[in-house]
Design goal:
The protein is an alpha+beta fold and 244 residues long. The chain contains seven helices and eight strands. The protein is 39% helix and 18% strand. Strands 1, 2, 3, 4 and 5 form a five-stranded antiparallel beta sheet that branches. It is elongated.
């Protein structure tokens, strides 16, 4: 199981190329294998886009649910996680004729261990891009030396509609209307958690969480609405009291 993502097309502007040329490494930087000029600029731009996403999430959810805090801290904005990639040619400063590039959010599912979180992350990135589109187009990207290419459609890796539900410390669950069962002896359940919660001794706890959600919220979720905090901020998360 790979993960998820979101990407959109941009055009490199003169400002970006000037920044690359100004970053030419000194002898000392070469000796210590510091990032090349274009790698340094790409890193700065990717960091700025990531921080803009973080700012949007904090503004949109100023009083985050436990599930929202959990996914932001443990996955989406963890220190070891850098989901933004800028796809440009590495000789751009020498030959700037081809200025097409892509901004890609690549969200790892960690071989299934964080797959639901990857899907949820891509879902929130798509909402950020849609709700903040004009500001991103006219403010954020030009400031970074990029121009949004409106004629090229932005792409989400998952075309199907995924509905999420808060699961407190377990981040978010994905609702499955058809349901599933681990084997013939187990009852049907309708909520998937990240696979990491089912590893080793934690499997019984994860199963209890899935069953709790199935018993109490399956009927609610059959209306097809996503209950993540961005889509449904009026959902009363206090209903999750008693979650194992």
């Amino acid at each position: 199981m790979g993960g998820s993502g979101y990407e959109f097309a941009v055009e490199i502007e003169d400002q970006f190329i000037r920044q690359v040329r100004e970053q030419k490494p000194s002898l000392l930087k070469r000796l210590f294998r510091s990032p090349s000029g274009i790698e340094a600029v790409i890193g700065e731009v990717a960091s700025a886009i990531r921080e803009d996403l973080r700012g949007f999430i904090e503004r949109a959810m100023p009083e985050p649910w436990e599930a929202t805090r959990s996914i932001c801290k443990q996955y989406l904005f963890s220190r070891s996680f850098a989901p933004v990639r800028i796809g440009v040619r590495h000789n751009l400063d020498e030959d700037p004729s081809d200025r097409q590039a892509r901004v890609a959010f690549t969200l790892s599912g960690c071989a299934g261990a964080a797959l639901v979180s990857a899907w949820l992350g891509a879902h929130w990135i798509e909402i950020w891009f849609q709700r903040e589109h004009e500001r991103i187009r006219t403010g954020l990207l030009p400031r970074l030396g990029l121009k949004l290419v409106e004629s090229v459609e932005s792409l989400a890796c998952d075309s199907e509609q995924i509905c999420f539900f808060p699961a407190n410390m377990y981040c978010y669950a994905r609702f499955d209307s058809e349901g599933f069962s681990e084997d013939d002896k187990e009852p049907f359940q309708h909520f998937y958690l990240d696979g990491c919660w089912s590893e080793g001794d934690d499997d019984a706890s994860a199963n209890a969480v899935r069953q709790f959600l199935t018993d109490r919220f399956t009927d609610l979720m059959r209306d097809g609405r996503c209950r993540c905090q961005l889509c449904c901020p009026d959902f009363d998360a206090n209903q999750l009291q008693g979650l194992p």
